[in-house]
Amino acid sequence: MNSSPDQILSWENLIYLADFMAASGERAISLLGGEPTLHPLFVDFVLYLLQREFRVNVFTNGIMSSHRLLELKEHLGAVPNERLSFVCNLNNPEQTDAPAWQQKSVEEFLGAMGPWTQPGFNIYRVDFDLEFLFDLVNRYGMKRRLRLGLAHPVPGAETAYIKPSEIGLAIERLYSYRQLFEGFQLDFVPDCGFPLCKFSNEQLGWLYRIGGVEMRFKCSPAIDITPDMNVYACFPLSNINRRSIFEFDNMRQVVDIFAETHRKIRAEAKGIYPECDDCAQMNNGTCSGGGACQLLNIFKNEASVRLPEIESELKNTCLPV
Fold first, then answer.
1. How far is CA 23 from CA 82, 211, 251, in A?
2. What gap in Å lies between CA 287 and CA 218, rounded to an integer?
3. Euclidean distance between CA atoms 296 and 256, whole angstroms
4. Per-residue confidence at 267, pLDDT binned at 50, 70, 90?
5. Of 58, 74, 175, whose CA–CA distance to 118 is shortest?
6. C-beta separation of 56 from 84 below 8 A
7. Helix or strand or coil: residue 8?
8. Which of 124, 89, 84, 122 shows the shortest CA–CA distance to 106?
9. How far apart are CA 122 and CA 92, in angstroms?
10. What's residue 319's pLDDT?
11. Mind listing the pLDDT tens digit for each residue in 224-254?
């Protein structure tokens, strides 16, 4: 979904996508944005997908009108949280410029939908502060699993992100909160882009203890579909090899085409560090060696000696240095 008034998901396209996903054997759908709850038919769309027996996951910033929040409570408040869930990306109010009314709106949302909501946090600076998050999780009865992301460069956009040289510092900062994670019984699984080699053995032991068997250090397509029915590998790669969903018969074909894009990128360099070329974890598939978007950022500043397909894509982007 997209909150722009001239580009919002229509009923026709929603029904097509639901049919496409069901025919592909997919039973889970995530709604993203922009901010999906701004869509005028948001609640109707969610109820329709639930009726089609999809598990629905909504990514939100938690900022919404009192009318929309009342709609959520009235129409979605009885839905089991294994069928409907929210991921609310939380920001430390002391490290952002968000006005007080926005923080109040987020807390009102959590007060109404906390048990349905998984906390989310995106690391975009190495001096991030997480203490505020534990208080919110505890106060509003949120799910005890943090969706932890690492901010990556986005082709064609000037965005804050963690550079390869800063990833180790971000991990050390994260590890400094281990007692709070354990004390509040909050676990997490790092999202894509965290390279295995930047974790010490002690840090890895802690991660596996709280994250269990779901620990992964991979980067693979996380398919996004836009309201105008374009599809791409993930948000950071949204300008790379964008296609129309109408070109495909099922989701397997979509995943395969973007996995091939990843393969072409990594044919030029295995990972974001020189030592990735000879890394045993890279060779056995345990680690992807950082995000593909980080690799493209490195390629942008190098000589034009790469595969023609990659060079063509790079000429159409303006990556931040």
1. 22, 32, 9
2. 5
3. 20
4. confident
5. 58
6. yes
7. coil
8. 89
9. 11
10. 32
11. 999 999 999 998 888 888 999 999 999 999 9
Cα distances (Å, whole numbers) of residue 118 to 5, 76, 241: 28, 16, 31
Q: List C-alpha distances in Å: 114 to 90, 139, 141.
A: 13, 9, 6
| pLDDT reading at 312 higher than 60 | no
167's torsion region: left (phi>0), alpha (psi -120 to 50) or beta?
A: alpha
Domains of the chain and any CATH numbers: 11-315 (3.80.30.10)
Q: Which of 53 and 241 is assigned the larger pLDDT?
A: 53
Residue whose structure tokens are 């996380």? 222
**Beta bridge partner(s), residue 250:** none
Report the SS3 class of residue 270: coil
144/137 Cα distance (integer angstroms): 7
Looking from the CA of 165 toward its CB, the CA atoms found within 13 Å total 2
Query: Residue 116 and residue 287: Cα distance in Å, rounded?
Result: 32
Nearest to 297 by CA among 151, 199, 170, 180: 151
Alpha-carbon dihedral of residues 19, 25, 28, 30, nearest 10 degrees? -60
pTM over 0.90: no
Report pLDDT for 1: 46
Beta strands in 76-158 (DSSP E): 84-89, 117-123, 145-150
Band (pLDDT 50/70/90 cuts) for residue 266 is: confident
- Of 19-28, 74-83, 311-320, the range with the lowest mean pLDDT is 311-320
Give dist(CA 50, CA 116) in Å, integer: 15
- Asked whether the beta carbons of 301 and 321 are under 8 A apart, the reply is yes
Max distance between CA atoms of the chain, in angstroms, equals 58
User: Is 80 exceeded by the pLDDT of residue 2?
Assistant: no
Quick check: 305 pLDDT over 50? no
Task: Report the DSSP beta bridge partners of residue 84.
Answer: 56
Torsion of CA 90, 95, 98, 100, to 10 degrees: 90
- Count of other CB atoms within 10 angstroms of residue 287: 23
Q: Tell me the three state secondary structure of residue 9.
A: coil
